[in-house]
């Protein structure tokens, strides 16, 4: 059944490319008769540096189990070591059993050394992104960087990461600063208001999903809504993890998923649906 579902979606996606409509990605996704497509997105902060008090050494194993049960198309990862990306990429590829899983990692900077922030095991520490795509060797681009605004007290310089499949989807993740609400807001506005338009100019427009630990809350001071553009939709885990979707995408459902004490955050799993040529339904 899974193989037949994948072949059906691949045929539908080929039609979408021919008519230049906007679609999202496969896996457990379903292409509807109106051209819309469903995408399952999973956000996790794994606290896997080995240095923080929330470290347990078990979060990557729990993340793998969550990927297997949730069968997402997009996985965004915060507070990970570089090799965690490859480990969980293999899990996502096994879950889908076809197509290609694109993986990317971006380290946080380390202000005192001028190098990258490192995990206790010596690997670079930062954010990761996994995206399941149909077919072999799909055309995509990776963009990443360090924010110009940083918390002067925090030696870790926060970063952002995006994968763009031109005309299909742009998936981004970030872990914003925790100790300063105004700086987190400035970073969020920079990503959504400066970085994404620049990527549009470089690679062409694509419907965008941002998923990550923004360290901004609904009703907080500042409020996460202060950085979400008009026409975009948003859901959260009840705290600081957010999934933000552009105007062609509605967020159909979302729920926190327990990671059973292996990290200090739940996972956040959401089902998104594209609406080609229309605005998103506010969440």
From TrEMBL:
GO molecular function, one term: endonuclease activity
Family annotation (InterPro entries): Endo/exonu/phosph_ase_sf
Keywords of the record: Endonuclease, Hydrolase, Nuclease, Signal
Signal sequence segment: 1-31
Name of the protein this chain belongs to: Endonuclease/exonuclease/phosphatase family protein
Protein species of origin: Plantactinospora siamensis
């Amino acid at each position: 059944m899974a193989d037949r579902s994948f072949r059906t979606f691949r045929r539908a996606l080929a039609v979408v490319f021919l008519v230049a409509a906007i679609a999202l990605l496969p896996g457990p996704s379903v292409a509807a008769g109106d051209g819309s497509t469903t995408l399952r997105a999973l956000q996790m902060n794994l606290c896997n540096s080995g240095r923080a008090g929330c470290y347990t050494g078990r979060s990557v194993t729990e993340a793998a189990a969550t990927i297997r049960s949730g069968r997402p198309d997009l996985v965004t990862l915060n507070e990970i070591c570089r090799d965690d990306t490859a480990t969980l990429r293999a899990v996502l590829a096994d879950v889908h059993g076809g197509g290609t899983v694109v993986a990317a990692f971006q380290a946080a900077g380390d202000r005192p050394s001028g190098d990258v922030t490192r995990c206790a095991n010596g690997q670079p520490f930062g954010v990761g992104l996994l995206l399941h795509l149909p077919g072999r060797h799909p055309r995509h681009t990776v963009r990443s960087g360090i924010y110009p605004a940083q918390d002067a007290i925090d030696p870790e310089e926060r970063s952002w990461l995006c994968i763009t499949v031109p005309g299909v989807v742009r998936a981004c993740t970030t872990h914003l600063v925790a100790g300063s609400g105004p700086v987190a807001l400035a970073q969020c506005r920079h990503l959504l208001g400066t970085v994404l338009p620049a990527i549009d100019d470089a690679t062409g427009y694509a419907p965008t999903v941002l998923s990550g630990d923004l360290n901004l809350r609904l009703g907080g001071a500042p409020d996460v809504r202060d950085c979400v553009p008009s026409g975009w939709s948003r859901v959260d885990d009840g705290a600081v993890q957010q999934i933000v979707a552009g105007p062609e995408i509605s967020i159909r459902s979302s729920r926190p998923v327990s990671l059973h004490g292996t990290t200090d955050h739940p996972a956040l799993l959401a089902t998104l649906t594209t609406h080609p040529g229309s605005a998103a339904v506010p969440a």
